[in-house]
Automatic annotation (TrEMBL):
<feature type="domain" description="Insertion element IS402-like">
    <location>
        <begin position="11"/>
        <end position="81"/>
    </location>
</feature>
<protein>
    <submittedName>
        <fullName>Transposase</fullName>
    </submittedName>
</protein>
<dbReference type="Pfam" id="PF13340">
    <property type="entry name" value="DUF4096"/>
</dbReference>
<dbReference type="InterPro" id="IPR025161">
    <property type="entry name" value="IS402-like_dom"/>
</dbReference>
């Protein structure tokens, strides 16, 4: 798989280094009921949420080079709670 071009809303390496431990701890405390480990890179999930928040696009209009809307919105909804 090739790397995508970054969006202006993407996390820098420094910001990801701050956020990654929090997300890793959250995932450890909230295992999937189905045992599914997740097919998408969590940094890309966060980048997609930031993209949507910055652009205001509808979830269905997330670019195709980001994880699918269902996966992104799942985490958005969980973390919003």
């Amino acid at each position: 798989m090739h790397e995508r071009k970054p969006y202006p809303s993407d996390l820098s390496d420094e910001r990801w280094a701050l956020i990654e431990p929090v997300i890793t701890a959250w995932k450890a405390a909230h295992p999937s009921v189905s045992g599914h480990q997740g097919a998408y890179d969590m940094r890309e999930i966060v980048n997609a949420i930031l993209y949507q928040g910055r652009t205001g696009c509808q979830w269905d209009y997330l670019p195709h080079d980001l994880p699918p809307r269902n996966a992104v919105y799942y985490y958005f909804a969980k973390w919003r709670e």
